[in-house]
């Protein structure tokens, strides 16, 4: 204690505890790399305060907009797996490696982009170029729309996965369409009501908001 000049174990009984100043909380590397026209939103809060995040557009993003490269650690084994995210691999220096992102300080914002489960959801394709993985928009993305990605056709073959084909009005798709899967409903974290779209959830007037 600088006031009484004593070296104490714990607080000074005469002058009391020190005033503790906390460091400012700094966002992770992945969050700091997020472009200004994109935003992260919490879609679900699981046990242990685990947040399920999604990347959403704040303004119109044009078709053929390229993002990347994806930042991750090259690994021969996948140490971190999330069923809502794409598994990514690259061919580099004659070897095949996983792009692993065990935590937010090892990657960039692209690690938060969730996978598309059907053609309607998909807004991005993932592909490999010069040993790096990039995401490119396959159609204009409207504000408040979540960015969702799937493999490009050639990359899907490399990853031994099925391809989702984006069919435009002027295109003819010779392959059979991918079977649509039911889309999970949007759930209000307060009253647990479910909604078919995020827009309906946003406009929902929850009676529990004041209590929260």
TrEMBL record:
Family matches, as InterPro entries: SET_dom, SET_dom_sf, Zinc_finger, Znf_C2H2_type
Stretches assigned to the C2H2-type domain: 186-212
Keywords recorded for this protein, A-Z: Metal-binding, Transcription, Transcription regulation, Zinc, Zinc-finger
GO annotation, cellular component aspect: nucleus
SET domain mapped to chain residues: 38-152
Any one of the GO BP annotations: regulation of gene expression
Domain of life: Eukaryota
Pfam families: PRDM2_PR
Molecular function GO labels: zinc ion binding
Name of the featured protein: PR domain zinc finger protein 10
């Amino acid at each position: 204690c600088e006031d009484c000049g004593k070296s104490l174990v714990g607080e000074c009984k005469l002058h009391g505890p020190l005033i503790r100043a906390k460091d400012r909380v700094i966002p992770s590397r992945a969050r700091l790399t997020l472009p200004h026209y994109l935003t992260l939103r919490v879609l679900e809060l699981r046990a242990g305060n685990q947040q399920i995040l999604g990347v959403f557009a704040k303004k119109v993003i044009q078709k053929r907009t390229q993002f990347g490269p994806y930042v991750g650690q090259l690994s021969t084994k996948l140490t971190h797996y999330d069923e809502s995210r794409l598994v990514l691999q690259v061919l580099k220096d004659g070897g095949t490696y996983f792009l692993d992102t065990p935590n937010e300080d090892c990657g960039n914002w692209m690690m938060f982009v969730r996978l598309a489960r059907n053609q309607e959801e998909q807004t991005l394709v993932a592909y490999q170029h010069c040993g790096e993985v990039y995401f490119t928009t396959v159609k204009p993305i409207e504000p408040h729309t979540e960015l969702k990605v799937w493999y490009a056709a050639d990359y899907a073959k490399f990853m031994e996965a099925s391809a989702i084909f984006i069919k435009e009005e002027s295109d003819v798709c010779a392959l059979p369409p991918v079977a649509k899967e039911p889309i999970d409903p949007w759930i209000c974290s307060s009253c647990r009501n479910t909604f078919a779209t995020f827009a309906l959830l946003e406009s929902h007037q929850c009676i529990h908001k004041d209590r929260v």
